[in-house]
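Regression check, MU-OXO-diiron case 399:
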Amino acid sequence: MPAVEMKPDIYWVGVNDRTTDLFEGLWPVADTGVSYNTYLINDEKKVIIDLVKAIKTDAFFDQIHAVMPLSEIDYVIINHMEPDHTGVLKTLHKIAPDITLVGTEKMKQMLAHYYGITDPVRVVRDGETLTLGRKTLQFFEAPFIHWPETMVTWEQTQKVLFPCDAFGSYGALRGTIFDDECLEPEFYIREALRYYVNIVARFSQPVLKAIEKLSGLDIQMIAPSHGLIWRKDPARIIDYYRNWAELAQGGGDKGITLLYGSMYGNTEAVMDAIAQGLACSGITIEIFDVARIHTSYILPALWIHKGVMVGAPTYEGRLFPPMAQALDMAVLKKIQNKKAAYFGSYGWSGGALRQVKSMMEPMQWDFRNIFEFQGGIEGDVLKKAEAFGREFSSDVQSE
Ligand code: FEO
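Current build output:
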């Protein structure tokens, strides 16, 4: 997409990435794409804010060149060191070694470790300003959104916040960069939640701290480094992020995430009966086959719903491995204080339940409802399963 002037002399000069399959080598983005938003300020001093992944490097430099020659740039502001925002830095430094790189003290250390660059670097302190001419930048440390070196940049005269990862989303830009021109904002909200839980959720307390720290600013535009730029309603994306961050303490709506894995269909048949029981009360249920659906799509449901139903058989004396992987990711992302239940089959001796219990412990899930059965769907297993679902649904609703 060609450069866009967002405010007088402030330009979006980012790139869309529709060829990376896995963001961070882990999270699927083949269907949605992702954008790396870079910004250019044309004042007496010329500034680039954040860079892009080492992809489409020529296209990126062409974007800048469409506004001004690279040789005129004075500063590159590095809000965050992750290579999706610094990948082209080594090349840029070779082409234009006099550009001063601006960031926190931790950024300076990481710059040396990642790219062997030590000079010219300007370290800025929390709240420090940089006058460009007509415009003035101010820098606020925002550690752990998403790494320890992270800061956000505030342009005081046009009241634009450049928060890098914060308030971002998956999803390549589809013809417009602005929220008010976007005909499918729900796509970006959905992808912002998936991005939040995949990338930022573990750092929810720093997110809340940063939102509080920035609350005194009269923000007219939020220009994150992934996804839409919010100019019509910047408070909307802040509110979403605040609400999601607050869920780190637990809770959520009265919906249930039903995770299951099944080797020969027995656990799946019981899952269907349990889903019938759950559905009786009209509660929201999201069902995921953990062996087939990537954890990236499961985590958002776990994050926003209070109830979790885990269904998987014993496999070689342990929990069915795809379920163990899904729960392990929930532990990593600190999905805490849920109301949980377990069901599953075993052939001759159990093992899955023991592992489920130990995995739920660090997440402090309230885990009381258990339904295990041996072998196949014999006798009144399905009837009991439906009743088990009904009971759990009422437990979640009564919270
Ligand atoms: Fe978009 Fe943490 O990098």
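Comparison notes: Residues 100 and 120 are 5 Å apart (CA to CA). The mean pLDDT is 97. No diff flagged against the previous build.
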